[in-house]
Amino acid sequence: MQQIEFDTKWTMVVDIDKCSGCGSCMVSCQAENNIAPMEDGSNKLKTLTWMLVYELNNGKEFPERESAYLPRPCMQCGNPACVPVCPVVATTKDEEGGIVSQIYPRCIGCRYCMAACPYHARYFGWFDPIWPEGMEKALSPKTSTRPRGVVEKCNFCHTRLMDARARARAEGMDPNKLPDGWYKPACLESCPTGAISFGDSKNPEHKVHDLIKDKNAFRILESIGMDPQVYYISRRDWVREQSDNHLPKDKH
Amino acid sequence: MDRNLFPEGVTRCGLPKFSLWMAFVSIFFLWGAYAAVVIFVNGIGVTGLDNYFGFGLWITFDLAVIALGAGAFFTGFLKYILKIDQLKNIVNLAVIIGFLCYSGAMLILTMDIGQPIRAWFGYWHPNVHSMLTEVIFCITVYCVVLLIEFIPLILEQKQLNKIPFVRHFAHHLHVNMALFAGIGTFLSTFHQGSLGGMYGVMFGRPYAFRDGFFIWPWTFFLFVLSAVGTGPIFTVLVCTFIEKMTGKKLVEYKVKALMGKIAGSMLCLYMFLKIIDTWAWATGYLPSVGLTFDEMFYGNIYGKWLMWVELGLCGIVPAIMMITPSIRKNPALLYTAGILACIGVSVNRYVFTVQTIAIPVMPFDTWEFYAPNWAEWTTCGMIVAYGVLVLSLCYRYLPVFPSEIKLNSK
After folding, report:
1. What's the rounded Cα separation, in Å, for the pair B144 and B138?
2. Contact, B289 vs A223, CB < 8 A?
3. How many helical (H) and strand (E) elements, i.e. helices and strands, does chain A have?
4. Interatomic CA distance for residues A210 and A196, integer angstroms
5. pLDDT for residue A251
């Protein structure tokens, strides 16, 4: 499929060296996006965690052991593996900004997109969403809830983009040229260490425009060619080495 | 009691014995039907599938039965298009098996998709870039073609055939069968290929991804060839199974041997290309994304033994056995080769379905394990039971085997 280039490219940059692995981003994502708590959350392979924090380590034993935490939202790939495989066009990447959308009322739940995504960023609603009594009143009114049987995923809190565009229109500005900081996903807002940055990487006025050019910036699985819109930064060699697969001879 | 319904000139077991057999098989059918109800009511969270394994036993089972059901379109193609007349003695059975395999696969799919009532969206909102769209179109249309191919046989039932309209209708369907065989061949070839293409286009999954020709990855062509290399011999195995169960000769051995020869030739071509494909994948593609052949395998259930079984014991060995005349002439050896080939294609479908998504592609990710649970096993069992029930009824009441009377006359 031909890759579409947009004038705006919403990009997330996560500074791994700042991330403490607290999980605040995961929790705020759950709350913002109306992800129902599971009756039995012990099976982590059936929970819905659009934002998932991986623990990395340098493979050494104490006292040389080091750890790092890598939050993983949907990578919003420039060349997504999930989009061309969907048989019903329930997932697309055709809106300015390059966010990969997921249309829940159209998804038939075939899970082909999950099989195609190597980042495991797509989640299936295995069970009916049930909120504990009273909690349903605290649901985010702007985010749709999903029935069981459809695939769901992070959309960079797309409703917040809608809000930011509405604000821009109200203030007589171009809704497709939002100033830096007007559109913030929930995970960014709740991050206590400021590890997450977000903005338009094609707009020189946005912080992420420079951040992605940092010499320590990298993306996961670059060799496969999915062109993710999520970047990571780490000054530690062993963290960057885990960004992609390498043959023994090309270890750096 | 039901003797009047039997095909002309044949003998069948008594109704009590037949009823006992049907009741026995129905236990498995009903057990699976219970699981299906549980799944439809509670959702597929009750299965062993999870966020890593969106595809599991059901898709493996679907792909395997569809490959094994390929005897229908390929035998139809050889009989009606290439006019290999000897195959008329087994083509009815091939069509029934094909119909059962395809309709069974579609029944499983209604459970497998999370939103069964939206299944028609595949037609309404088709994504022309998706191999699965092609599968949805071809599989449903081909299932209808198989039904059209099956109907004349049903209409030939002795009592039904006494009705003039039915007799003439069946006759005209027969006359036009070459047309349906042609449509069936086109549709089935494409969707067998698209099933392979589904995996081959997943460029995020290094175990399955393949380059290819135009929009089709190599797996497209490999799936077609592996299906026509095993479908015909599966038909022979089912025929032999019915013969052993009933104690009757139903098809001349030379027809079975011919089917074995056809399957063997196709399997040889498939193995030749599959080995080249595997070599190119292991030494070309994998290193290009920083991976090695060894990293594609892990532990016992994802071990390299699967590949050696698939390509060696259940690939090269049966291919050679089936194309060697002296081996093919020995029924026990031909059937052994057939069983091996069918296991081989099933292993191929398993590894492409499960191994592909079990492999951690991100370097810091881990291998995950998948075990189907009772809900998946019993529903697959239900489909097998459905096939056995329909096949039993067909054998008892329909003239499936044209040479049965001649072969069993004393």
Report:
1. 10
2. yes
3. 7, 10
4. 14
5. 56
Residues 124-143 of B with CB under 8 A from A: 124-127, 129-133, 135-136
**How many C-beta atoms surround the C-beta of residue B268 within 10 A?**
19
Contact A165, A158 (CB under 8 A): no
Pull the structure tokens for residue A106: 């159209």
Does an H or E element contain B115, and which? none
Residues constituting chain A:
252
Distance, C-alpha B126 to centroid of its chain:
25
Q: Parallel, antiparallel, or unpaired: how do β-strands A217-218 and A196-200 relate?
A: unpaired
- Give yes or no for a contact between B101 and B65, defined as CB atoms under 8 angstroms apart: yes
On whether any CB of chain A is under 8 Å from the CB of B366, the answer is: no
Contact assessment for residue A115 and residue B56, using Cβ atoms and an 8 Å cutoff: no
Residue indicated by tokens 């073609």:
B145
Instruction: Name residue, tokens 């329930």.
Output: A90
Average pLDDT, chain A: 93
Give the residue, B375 or B139, on which the prediction is more confident: B375
In 3D space, the residue among A126, A106, A105, A114 whose CA is nearest the CA of residue A85 turns out to be A114
Summarize pLDDT for B41-68 with one digit per residue, the tens.
999 999 999 999 999 999 999 999 999 9
Q: What is the DSSP string of B245-300?
A: HHT---S-HHHHHHHHHHHHHHHHHHHHHHHHHHHHIIIIIHHHTT--GGGG-BTT
H or E element in which residue B383 lies? helix B374-397
Centre a 10 Å sphere on the Cβ of residue A11 and count the other Cβ atoms it contains.
25
- CB contact under 8 Å between B290 and A250, yes or no, is yes
* B128, two tokens: 């022309």
Q: How far is A150 from chain B (nearest CA, A)?
A: 6
Q: B60: helix, coil or strand?
A: helix
- CA–CA dist B263, B340 (Å, integer): 12
- Residue A110 belongs to what H/E stretch? none
Dihedrals phi, psi of B103, to nearest 5 degrees: -70, -35
CA distances, A95 to each of A7, A91, A98 (Å): 10, 11, 6
**Is the peptide bond between A63 and the residue preceding it cis, with omega within 30 degrees of 0?**
yes
Q: Does A46 touch chain B (CB under 8 A)?
A: yes
